[in-house]
Specification:
- There is one protein chain.
- By secondary structure, this protein is α+β, with helices and mostly antiparallel strands.
- It has 11 helices and 4 strands.
- The C terminus is likely disordered.
């Protein structure tokens, strides 16, 4: 086994373990004592736990088993082994934290800190290539055969759960649970996709070489250079594509405003970057 592969395996195991423990801590120390419900199979287990005298961890594990079996057949062994480990550890840790004193009696604090910790835990598990909830397996499989995205399927399932929570336990509990779900979702995005807040910028201009050179000199960012034609004018245009950090956007906007000729620019969020983005220092290092 290569050293790099061994380090990656250790990193994956640490993220799966830490994620499952954080999620279990959040559920038992913040959500359950305040009557706040998660979505998915965990949320369904929390609802069932109010009526069935079975520990929450056992319910969560048992209800997830059919989805893990389905995923084993359809999604590959590696993913399901990671998911199975994370779910099993989560179930065990909920039993560990079950009898410890709750972290707070304030519902707003439970929603906020519980949502952040739960989102951090779930995000770490997802980043490691696993999952903590069987509904994600079903959503992934369904999205492959329909035009509905994975996120939309999960949201639909969770809306049903929160509607049940609101009807059975009171509208206020349903609203608090929905708010917690929003906090959790945003935290998952930050943990799973990173904090870099990179932007992709596409610039259509008449003199692309000069602007590309300025971006390279002042920001240290290489630019992908393309050629295009206007549909109405049929004039030749230069199309520049560059990825920058949020901190570099101000300087880039200034360059674009001061560039000669007319320009048309779009700036969009980048959720993930795969591969290496060449910067000035990368080229200088390669010449040493």
């Amino acid at each position: 086994m290569k050293k790099g592969n061994g380090l990656r395996m250790i990193q994956t195991a640490v993220m799966l373990t830490l994620g499952a423990v954080l999620a279990a801590f959040s559920v038992e120390e913040f959500l359950v004592p305040s009557g706040i419900f998660d979505g998915g199979i965990i949320g369904l287990s929390m609802v069932a736990d109010r009526f069935i005298p079975v520990p929450l961890g056992v319910l969560t594990f048992v209800l997830n088993l059919p989805f893990l079996f389905l995923g084993w057949k359809k999604m590959g062994h590696t993913f399901i082994l990671k998911a199975g480990y994370a779910i099993a550890l989560f179930s065990v840790m909920t039993r560990v934290f079950e009898n410890t004193p709750s972290a707070t009696d304030e519902v707003v604090l439970a929603v906020t800190f519980g949502g952040v910790l739960l989102g951090t835990g779930v995000g770490l598990v997802l980043r490691a290539g696993g999952c903590l909830d069987g509904t994600e397996v079903v959503a992934i499989l369904l999205s492959k055969h329909t035009s509905v995205s994975t996120g939309q399927i999960i949201l639909f399932f969770n809306c049903i759960i929160y509607a049940v929570v609101g009807a059975v336990f009171g509208l206020e509990k349903g609203m608090y649970s929905l708010l917690m779900y929003f906090v959790t979702s945003k935290t998952i995005d930050l943990v799973e996709l990173g904090w870099d807040n990179t932007k992709s910028v596409m610039i259509i201009t008449e003199d692309g070489k000069a602007l590309a050179g300025q971006i390279y000199r002042e920001l240290g960012r290489t630019v992908t250079f393309m050629k295009g034609h206007g549909y109405v004018s049929d004039e030749s245009k230069d199309i520049l594509y560059v990825v920058v950090t949020r901190a570099e956007i101000f300087d880039l906007r200034k360059m674009i405003r001061e560039a000669p000729g007319s320009t048309f620019t779009t700036i969009t969020e980048v959720s993930e970057i795969i591969g290496n983005h060449i910067r000035t220092e990368d080229i200088l290092e390669g010449t040493n």
